[in-house]
Design a protein that fits this description.
- By secondary structure, the protein is an alpha/beta fold.
- It has a single domain (about 5-270), classed as Aldolase class I (TIM Barrel), CATH 3.20.20.
- The protein is about 35% helix and about 20% strand.
- The chain is built from nine helices and 14 strands.
- The protein has helices at about 25-40, 60-75, 90-95, 125-140, 150-160, 185-190, 210-220, 245-255, 265-270, and strands at about 5-10, 45, 50, 55, 80, 105-110, 115, 120, 140-145, 170-175, 200-205, 225, 235, 240.
- An eight-stranded parallel β-sheet has the order 5-2-1-12-11-10-9-6, sandwiched between helices. The chain has a two-stranded antiparallel ribbon with strand order 3-4. The protein has a two-stranded antiparallel sheet with strand order 7-8.
- Helix 6 (about 185-190) links the parallel strand 10 and strand 11 (about 200-205).
- Helix 1 crosses helix 2, helix 1 (about 25-40) runs parallel beside helix 8 (about 245-255) and helix 7 runs parallel beside helix 8 (about 245-255).
- The protein is globular and about 45 Å long.
- The two termini are about 20 Å apart.
């Protein structure tokens, strides 16, 4: 079975220190969390950035500072900036990190609109998805296709047929978000069975679903994302001390199940970066 790629989503745009004091805000904190996650076994850092007070931003300047801090500590790690940003941001705001020099090797590309709860709607129209894909390919950036429901996988497949998204495709299947597909064995199988045979996929379980979904992904031959962006707890009622602690738990599960961990070199080869 292919080596296991572990992605660490270290801070996100919505979680805050009041929920878990270990959520990183500053460039130094982000660098610390990225380095510790890398040393624990993560080969990809999925990156949102914050102002020092925790305010989410897609500022190109802020991304540059944080990526430089990460690369100074662990130059081989793959940094995947988010183009999701935060709810309410414009397309132009969200795309800023793909215009960095040098461009990132990979970036997230959300494949549909989702109700996030209450009045919060994360909007990604078909036109937005096409535009983001075109801009990424212009800069030779591989999109990670973020799919929160079956219809988003179908959207990605339609856009591949039309030439907007290229093979081989790499998906991030996100299960357990309010408004998205449920985190269950049935629904993960349902999504995976839809994917092209030459594609790769990562599985993200939200909240309490993080490790059950990670375990299923390991057994099924997929890859895994964990981190404080998605889940603040290491076990029921116990806050995670760091992103690295979450990564370490995945490594232990993978070791028990006989799955080797991918290095950044392995990951670039698997994903064709």
């Amino acid at each position: 079975m292919e080596k296991l790629i572990i992605t660490a989503a270290i801070c996100g745009a919505e979680v805050i220190k009041e929920q878990n004091p270990n959520v990183p805000y500053t460039a130094k904190e982000i660098g610390n969390e990225a380095e510790a996650s890398f040393l624990a076994g993560a080969s990809i850092i999925h990156l949102h950035v914050r102002e020092n007070d925790g305010t989410p931003t897609q500022s190109k300047k802020r991304f540059r500072v944080c990526i430089e801090e990460i690369k100074r500590r662990c130059p081989d790690v793959i940094v995947m900036p988010s183009t999701g940003g935060a709810i309410g941001m414009s397309n132009e705001e969200r795309l800023q990190p793909i215009y960095l020099e040098p461009p990132p090797e990979v970036a997230s590309l959300d494949c549909g609109t989702l109700n996030f709860g209450g009045d919060e709607i994360f909007v990604n129209t078909e036109t937005t998805i096409k535009f983001f894909a075109e801009e990424m390919y212009k800069r030779e950036i591989k999109p990670e296709l973020e799919c929160f429901d079956k219809g988003m996988v179908d959207m990605a497949l339609r856009l591949r047929k039309k030439g907007f998204i290229k093979d081989p495709m790499h998906f991030n299947l996100v299960l357990g978000v309010n408004g998205g597909i449920t985190a269950s064995t049935r629904d993960l199988n349902f999504l995976v069975e839809t994917l092209p045979l030459n594609s790769t996929y990562t599985v993200t379980g939200i909240g309490k679903h993080e490790f059950p979904m990670a375990t299923l992904a390991i057994v099924m031959g997929g890859h895994v994302r964990v981190g404080l962006e998605d889940n603040l707890y290491i076990s029921k009622g116990k806050l995670a001390e760091s992103n690295a602690q979450l990564v370490e738990k995945v490594v232990r599960i993978a070791n028990e199940l006989g799955r080797d961990i991918a290095s950044p070199y392995d990951t670039r080869k698997i994903l064709g970066l």
